[in-house]
Amino acid sequence: MTMNHLLRGHAPLSDAGWQQLDEEARERLAPALGARKLVDFSGPLGWQHSATNLGRVSALADPPAEGVSGLRREVLPLVELRADFALSREEMRDADRGAADPDLDPLDDAAREIALAENVAVFHGWRGAIAGIAERAPYDALALGEKAQGYPRQIAGAVEKLLCEGIGGPYGIALGREQYRLVVETAENGGYPLLDHLRKILEGPIVWTPGVRGAVVVSLRGGDFLFESGQDLSIGYDSHDAEVIRLYLQESFSFRVATPEAAVALTP
268 near 85, Cβ under 8 Å? Predict the structure, then answer.
């Protein structure tokens, strides 16, 4: 988190202040970045990395001379996400004095917002930029239903769809906030936790994924869902005045679905 383009050296923050902000951001982001727990992550490759090689070409018309042909390499441009926030300069001064509870709520809010945006982009897409897993899945979406007791049947059905297509496991599931809460709260007949039952069906993780609408079952065999990070999530400096320091969280990445058949969407 010390890249020059982030202009961190221009911010009126001490080294200890920056360390505290970085640690706070990591703590808030780690549980919320659910998509990363279920896809192949590569990088970070740096802020200047601008496109992902797709390994394909397209023909060019009208070559500049007779007897030759031309091809254009196809690439997937990276996208950038940014969430701005402002912190009180007085709060950061108090942190330098040893205050254990500086008000970092604006940073926490920005971390939640950008994590949610990344999850939505990966699973539901970003129009004109990213095709999401759920929208690329070729199967009819299954309905989870209103009661969590019915989830095992639907999730087992999703796993069977993948098996029938020759898509091996283990499998994982991204659950939206409400669906995750229902699963954690529910016990089946005899008091057996629903969470444990679902883990046995999937043989993989159950991931709290804010932004997901319903749930998505994915294969974790590898090579199906590819997240390429340019700059990983970092805090940068924008400006300041006598009262506040204006900062931002930023990342760049591409995402592509190599095997649409390796996922099944489940509606709320």
Answer: no
The gap from C-alpha 197 to its chain's centroid, in whole angstroms, comes to 26
What pLDDT score was predicted for residue 2? 46
Beta bridge partners of 24: none
pLDDT computed for residue 190 by the predictor: 53
The model's pTM is 0.92
Residue 3: pLDDT above 70?
A: no
pLDDT in tens, 61-96: 988 898 999 999 999 999 999 999 999 999 999 999
Q: Locate 137 and state its tokens.
A: 């899945």
Residue 112: its H or E element: helix 105-124
CA gap 102, 107 in Å, rounded: 11
Chain-centroid distance, C-alpha 209: 8
Instruction: Give the whole-angstrom CA distance, residue 242 versus residue 215.
Output: 46
DSSP, residue by residue, 125-170 = -BTTTB--HHHH--SPPEE--SSGGGHHHHHHHHHHHHHHTT--S-
Q: How far apart are CA 149 and CA 238, in angstroms?
A: 49
CA pair distance 246, 170, nearest whole angstrom? 44
Q: 157 to each of 75, 123, 141, 186, 205, how far by Cα in Å?
A: 36, 20, 11, 20, 17
CA distances from 182 to 86, 88, 150, 268 (A): 35, 38, 11, 12
Q: pLDDT of 234-254, one tens digit each?
A: 999 999 999 999 999 999 999
d(CA 54, CA 34): 25
